[in-house]
Write a structure and sequence with these properties.
Uridine Diphospho-n-acetylenolpyruvylglucosamine Reductase, domain 2, 15 helices, five-stranded antiparallel sheet, Uridine Diphospho-n-acetylenolpyruvylglucosamine Reductase, domain 3, Alpha-Beta Plaits, 4 domains, alpha+beta, 20% strand
Length: 473
């Protein structure tokens, strides 16, 4: 804001109260993106305050970056301009909740863990299990577009978000969808908001469909000599009538991370009993829900599939009785969900690549990752979801120019191989100083012109998180 700072701050005093304005440099550093801090952070408590802030920012040509708990603020590219951090954590109410109708409406700043606790009182759940779960907000999770292990059964948030309310870049309150579980006509304008990193609008209310909480969960683990056998088990599962809550393929490197002493230091991290994962084999983890006859059939069918695909061992999680079955399943789910933050702590230059390929191409994608990393002597770890989403952690031991070049060459190959397999790859997390050298968003596609047009409609002045998304959008 340069010389305008004092006058701008004075004008903002009429919009939000003193307790909702942050100007101290030591506190503003907590909102930094790529080492750049905003001139001010504002904590609005209503959609009307957001409207006034955005209108003021548009008139003054000030750039706004909306945020929540800031657990995923380093995703994407650093903004070209960053004047105001719009902290939505004060907007943390449950606006409406009808357990009988399975509908829920919340403000964006509500913590995921608090929301899950409230839904649990009614034996219901919302299948959003995002990384950094103990601190993440609903709005930040939606805006970042991260998924969770249970998408195998429930799909992504796109499948159960009913609508949103949002403020556009010119200060207009918009709505899309509704709060009823039925098909509606018109455009699903809320879908582009998912994963947009706040570049299209500022979420003020989000409507969901909720689900009955599983009453019983049973988990199973199978060990394979290689990724191809583990992927073959996935293919067999896909062609069967079984519907797992969760299906994860865990590489030996990922097993080491998940069971490491570092992961045990995370707040709230449960202990993982030995024998569930293997640092020497590829592990397939599955969970099912249902009554005892259903679970018994799932176990028999899955055991047969695993053995037919070459499994070295197969076991039911918690079958030894030393630790309750549900406790063990919950513990391993916690570690799977937190794979990204665990990996980020494991290397001074951890780079996370997210690959999306057709599910039947998982084995080929993992083979491509192995070749790309081994050619540059890069340690790596991978977790593949049964739906074809693979998170790969590249774990260089240094954070220097040589390491950066190795990671750049490896990720470029991963991008190319993912495209060849009919998919796509991005780099959600990497060292900030590497972002100009790595292809964060992967190869550009023919929809770029449409994306830019959409940005110009929702944010005509280009003040919402400018430059953070694909091609500087």
């Amino acid at each position: 804001m340069s010389t305008r700072t004092d006058s701008v701050l004075a004008q903002l005093e009429s919009i939000v109260d003193a307790g909702a304005r942050i100007t101290a440099p030591e506190k503003l550093s907590g909102y930094a993106i790529g080492g750049v801090s905003p001139a001010i952070a504002l904590q609005p408590s209503s959609a009307q305050e957001i409207i006034e802030i955005v209108k003021f920012a548009a008139a003054e040509n000030l750039a706004i970056v909306p945020c929540g708990a800031r657990t995923k603020l380093e995703m994407g590219l650093p903004p070209r301009k960053y004047d105001i951090a719009l902290d939505l954590t004060r907007m943390d109410r449950i606006v409406a909740y009808d357990p009988g109708d399975l509908t829920l409406s919340v403000e964006p700043g509500i913590l995921l863990r608090n929301l899950h606790q409230e839904l649990g009182k009614h034996s219901q759940a919302l299948p959003i299990g995002a990384p950094f779960m103990t601190r993440a907000t609903v709005g930040g999770t939606i805006a970042s577009g991260v998924d969770n292990p249970m998408r195998q059964f429930y799909g992504t948030v796109r499948d159960f978000i009913l609508g949103v309310e949002f403020v556009t870049g010119d200060g207009v309150l918009g709505k899309s969808g509704g709060c009823v579980v039925k098909n509606v006509t018109g455009y699903d304008l809320h879908k582009p908001m998912i994963g947009s990193l706040g570049t299209l609008g500022i979420l003020t209310k989000i409507n969901f469909r909720t689900f009955p909480a599983p009453q019983s969960i049973r988990g199973f683990t199978a060990f394979f000599s290689n990724a191809q056998e583990a992927a073959a088990c996935r293919d067999a599962m896909a062609s069967s009538p079984l519907r797992p809550l969760l299906f994860e393929i865990v590489s030996p490197g990922a097993a080491k991370l998940i069971e490491s002493s570092t992961s045990a230091t995370f707040p709230g991290a449960p202990n993982v009993p030995p024998g569930i994962l293997s640092a020497d084999s590829w592990t397939v983890l599955t969970c099912f829900t249902g009554g005892e006859p259903v679970l018994g059939r799932c176990e028999a069918e899955l055991r047969r599939m695993a053995e037919d695909c070459g499994a070295n061992a197969f076991a039911r999680i918690g079958a030894n009785g030393a630790v309750p079955e549900l406790v063990q399943a919950g513990a391993i789910f916690w570690r799977l969900r937190e794979f990204v933050p665990i990996a980020l702590e494991a290397s001074p230059a951890c780079t996370i690549t997210k690959i999306s390929v057709p599910p039947e191409q998982i084995d080929h994608a993992l083979a491509a990752v192995r070749h790309a990393t081994e050619d540059h002597s890069l340690p790596w770890a991978a977790m593949a979801r049964g739906v074809g989403v693979i998170y790969v952690a590249l774990l260089p031991t240094a954070r220097d120019e040589h390491a950066m070049k190795c990671v750049a060459e490896a990720t470029n190959r991963i991008h190319a191989d993912s495209e060849r397999l009919g998919g796509h790859a991005t780099i959600p997390w990497c060292p900030t100083e590497w972002k100009q050298s790595l292809n964060i968003w992967g190869p550009q596609h023919g929809d770029l012109a449409l994306m830019k047009k959409l940005k110009s409609v929702f944010d005509p002045r280009g003040i919402l998180a400018p430059g953070r998304f694909v091609a500087g959008i």
